[in-house]
Design a protein that fits this description.
The complex is a heterodimer.
Chain A lengths: L1 H11 L3 E4 L3 H11 L7 E8 L10 H18 L4 E7 L2 H12 L3 E4 L6 H6 L3 H8 L4 E3 L8
Helix pairs in contact in A: 2-3
Chain B lengths: L2 H4 L5 H18 L2 H8 L3 H25 L6 H9 L1 H33 L10 H19 L7 H23 L2 H5 L12 H8 L6 H6 L7 H30 L10 H9 L3 E2 L2 E2 L1 H37 L18 H18 L3 H28 L16 H14 L4 H22 L8 H8 L6 H10 L8 E6 L2 H17 L3 E9 L6 H6 L1 H20 L5 E8 L3 H10 L4 E5 L11 H9 L4 E6 L7 E5 L4 H17 L2 E8 L4 H14 L6 E6 L2 H9 L4 E5 L5 H6 L6 H5 L4 E5 L6 H6 L3
Classes of the chains: A alpha/beta, B alpha/beta.
Chain lengths: 146, 754
């Protein structure tokens, strides 16, 4: 019984896709995942594109941000792969990336904030959990660590 | 598709709508009344002249933009070409110019808003200013949270605007009356001399095409789309302006044209009040025009605020402003500080200068015109200096006439502004220069192509010119960063000695990092909890490093990094700290462990900078042996040897190993090599035999042997343990291994990849 449960755990954490937004977020997200010892991790950064209008930030800056985030993840998971997606629809890009790298689960850490903040920043949590085609792991937010 | 292409999602139509959307708001909806009142019907010619000036500049921007599709646009080209002093003027000018333009668009928005809803006057604010302030706050807020217009909204808005205006033009055509246009005093009631002052006033209607260049890196196929979008949008708006302003003036006599909401007024007259049984057509048309005006001015303001954040980013990248401005909001992913600062300026301009829309319009124009003039100069410098990396897909016709004409026309138009705008702008230019000397000069690093060109040919230029170039050159280049990865107390002193000597020699600084490898079994969180103990040992190590480096009198910084990555972290740290040279111990290369091989191979194959790896624990350097057979890594060995000779007085011997019988050729090679590397005074040794054996035998006579990696990737193989370097392992004498990466091309660093 415990054996099968454990092996299920293993399967779930065989290859975790870890969407991260910026260096600080990446560090905290990776630290939150670390205790569960996933077998393999791919860090994902989605560069939010304007899709017909100029982006919010210059591409160069977005890519710097991605690079910093990957370095932060690799401090925790040295073998972590990285994957950069460019899309207007962030959650859609996360699902596509999960397909692309064949992830067993998506682990994310809610950015918190009250309802208004979540609404304004696009409430990714809700979309992520409602539309997912594979397990989504919500990592605990340990604010005492910040 | 490569990442590069994925990041590019703006097609030709999107690019064009950015230009048209920004420009059309002002020219048609805000200015015709004011301008006609100042110049009479001949103001149509003012618009055409403005279009011609804009077009000449558009050609130059297209060439620069296709050569360097980078965020920042005009500022970026000028900074690269004319150097950071002119870069500061251009950056501040562009930034302030956009803030003035945004304030102007907000006032335009307020004028039409006041038509719709009654706004009160509060304190010293007119109703229009109040509307403008509200609009400004909303635009800044929208950009702050980064609410994006869905996909093609901007495109849709521009098409709606163009169709509204087309309908208006058709309706106007039927009510057009030449007698109305000519008026009672003829076409030129204020004389032909009013044309150019008129152009000075309406030129703000053309400030939009350059914004396409600020997002050039997001364009698909910029080599083709950028010139078409820039030149095309200028062409289209010039035609639109000409037709519509003529129409308006043919519908309503110029002295009566509304100064606040001219299009709404003209629409009311141009459209019949009823078509058959349907009444209220004219009023409805006026309402539609008002909505159109609100959309147009809003999109202009929005685009300008976004463009100013791009310019801040580019300036921050060159350290002309603090990068604090460019921090990205953790939740909204927007450059919120830059937006807030720009927003603050806009609000101030609206509140204190907003009563007179002409001042805002002209101030925006003057600042942009100064930038355009500098941009043309930048183009000429790039071409004349024959910069090899400068390779535009689009080139201006009739060079050098076009850029010279562009600069002359831009500055010429400034002369037709009023005293107050010229004074205001002169104050900004002076403030920018002061800013450069007070703040930016000792931070920014790159000098422009121009001063490079002058300072490298100081014989051909008059002394005054060379002195001037020296006087304004940036001093921010603090010299190279020598990063030391200290691992344990035994080797710390030797590594710091090497780094200190190299840093001293090149006027650089030392960054001592202690990378603490946390075993995989220990979570970083736990490791962080034990930080206190760790800190104690780390602190001791780093403070020793500090003391050792101070002996060389070079600046030193220290840093502790917790990581699971071991040696791989060295590469990341080198990259993220922009190190020019990394000094590490041979022992450290061994703690990689087996697990990260794949990643490590990738890392070591693409070295971020020069690497010096020391095998040996203590250094008492009195003489140094440098075996060489040429190549980039032995260049590095020579540099290190020179540094040791000049800073701690080490004697340098050079060794060249040849096959027996080729001693003579070997001697010629070595003495030339020594001369070429400023080591002419070194002792030259030519030996025949097997390289490793000879080094092994001779090495023991010296206190340090410096060996350059003879092939790319040698270091990587040593680190991975796939190559046992017998020479190193056998020698009692400390050995310093050097490897220089295949050089990153200048093109990549300056112009970015396309």
């Amino acid at each position: 019984m415990t054996n099968s449960a454990e092996s299920n755990d293993r399967e779930l954490l065989a290859h975790v896709l870890l969407p991260v937004a910026h260096e600080d977020d990446a560090r905290k997200t990776a630290m939150a995942l670390e205790p569960y010892q996933p077998d393999h991790v791919t860090a994902l950064h989605v560069v939010e594109k304007g899709g017909g209008v100029p982006d919010k930030t210059p591409v160069e800056q977005s890519e710097e941000l991605a690079e910093e985030s990957y370095v932060a993840v690799r401090r925790v998971f040295p073998d972590a792969d990285d994957y950069t997606a460019y899309a207007r629809d962030v959650v859609g890009a996360i699902f596509e990336a999960a397909d692309e790298v064949d992830a067993s689960a998506i682990a994310y850490r809610s950015r918190g904030g009250n309802r208004i903040m979540q609404f304004l920043s696009g409430d990714l949590s809700l979309k992520l959990v409602t539309n997912a085609d594979r397990p989504v792991i919500a990592l605990p937010r340990d604010d005492s660590n910040e | 598709m490569s990442d590069e292409e994925l990041a590019k999602d703006l097609g030709l139509v999107s690019a064009m709508t950015i230009g048209i959307g920004t420009m059309i708001g002002a020219g048609i909806f805000v200015l015709p009344g004011v301008a006609a009142n100042a110049a009479g019907p001949i103001v149509v010619v003012s618009f055409v002249v403005g279009g011609v000036i804009a077009m000449v500049n558009a050609l130059s921007i297209s060439e620069l933009g296709t050569a360097m599709p980078k965020a920042g646009g005009g500022y970026y080209y000028i900074n690269k070409s004319l150097g950071p002093m002119f870069g500061s003027i251009a950056g501040m000018g562009d930034w302030m110019g956009l803030a003035f333009a945004s304030a102007f668009y907000c006032i335009g928005f307020g004028q039409y808003l006041a038509v719709f809803v009654g706004l009160p006057a509060i304190a010293f604010l007119s109703p229009i200013q109040l509307g403008a302030l509200l609009a400004g706050l909303v635009f800044v807020g929208v950009n702050y949270i980064g609410a994006k217009e869905t996909g093609g909204v901007q495109t849709v808005i521009v098409f709606i605007l163009l169709s509204i205006l087309t309908v208006f033009a058709i309706a106007g055509f039927f009510s057009f009356d030449y007698a109305t246009l000519a008026g009672e005093d003829g076409l030129t009631p204020f004389g032909v001399g009013a044309i150019l002052p008129g152009t000075a006033l309406v030129f703000v209607s053309f400030l939009g095409y350059a914004k396409i260049a600020t997002v050039a890196e997001e364009l698909k196929n910029p080599g083709r789309n950028l010139p078409i979008a820039i030149i095309g949008s200028v062409g289209i708006v010039t035609v639109v302006y000409t037709i519509l302003v003529t129409t308006m003036l043919g519908v309503i006599p110029w002295p009566e044209l509304s100064q606040d909401a001219p299009v709404a007024q003209a629409a009311e007259v141009a459209f019949p009040s009823s078509i058959g049984p349907i009444g209220g057509i004219a009023a409805a048309a006026a309402a539609v025009m008002t909505v159109g005006a609100l959309l147009a001015t809003a999109s202009s303001a929005n685009a300008s605020i976004l463009a100013s954040a791009r310019i801040n980013f580019a300036m921050g990248r060159d350290k002309i402003v603090t990068n604090w401005l460019n921090e990205i909001h953790p939740n909204f992913a927007t450059p919120y500080r830059s937006i807030l600062v720009t927003g603050g300026l806009i609000i101030v301009f609206i509140a204190f200068l907003g009563r007179d829309i002409e001042v805002l319009a002209k101030a925006a124009s003057v600042l942009h015109l100064i930038v355009y003039a500098l941009m043309n100069a930048a183009l000429i410098v790039f071409r004349e200096a024959d910069t090899p990396e400068y390779d535009p897909d689009f080139t201006v016709p009739l060079y050098p006439i076009t850029p010279i004409l562009g600069a002359v026309l831009s500055l010429g138009l400034v002369a037709f502004m009023d005293g107050i705008e010229i004074a205001l702008s002169a104050a900004f230019v002076i403030a920018a220069v002061v800013w450069y000397f007070v703040y930016a000069r000792d931070k920014t690093e790159q000098q422009g192509v121009l001063s490079d060109y002058i300072r490298n040919r100081d014989k051909e230029f008059p002394d005054q010119v060379v002195e001037a170039a020296d006087a304004v050159a940036p001093t921010g280049n603090k010299g190279p960063t020598i990063m030391v990865a200290v691992a344990n107390p035994r080797t710390e002193s030797a590594l710091i000695t090497l780094a200190g000597a190299v840093a001293k020699h090149k006027d650089g600084r030392v960054l001592a990092t202690h990378i603490v490898n946390v075993p995989d079994q220990t979570s970083l969180a736990t490791a962080a909890e034990h930080k206190a103990e760790l800190d104690a040992s780390s602190e001791k190590l780093l403070s020793d490093a500090k003391a050792d480096a101070e002996a060389f009198d070079v600046p030193i910084e220290t840093r502790t990094i917790l990581s699971h990555r071991g040696v791989a972290e060295v590469f990341d740290a080198a990259r993220s700290n922009d190190a020019d040279t990394v000094v590490m111990g041979y022992g450290s290369t061994r703690f990689a462990g087996g697990r990260a091989e794949g990643t490590l191979e990738e890392l070591t194959h693409d070295l971020p900078c020069d690497f010096l790896v020391l095998d040996g624990q203590s250094l008492e350097i009195s003489d140094v042996l440098v075996p060489t057979a040429g190549g980039p890594s032995s260049d590095l060995s020579a540099e290190v040897a020179r540094a040791l000779r000049d800073t701690i007085g080490a004697d340098v011997s050079l060794l060249h190993v040849v096959a027996s019988g080729e001693e003579e050729a070997g001697r010629t090679f070595l003495s030339e090599w020594a001369e070429g590397h400023q080591l002419g005074s070194a002792e030259l040794r030519i030996e025949s035999g097997d390289v490793e054996t000879v080094i092994g035998e001779l090495g023991s006579e010296y206190s340090l042997v410096i060996i350059g990696a003879t092939e790319r990737g040698l270091l990587s193989r040593i680190i991975r343990g796939s190559l046992a370097f017998d020479t190193i392992e056998r020698l009692e004498t400390p050995v310093l291994l050097t490897e220089r990466p295949s050089s990153r091309s200048l093109r990549e660093r300056v112009f970015g990849s396309r």
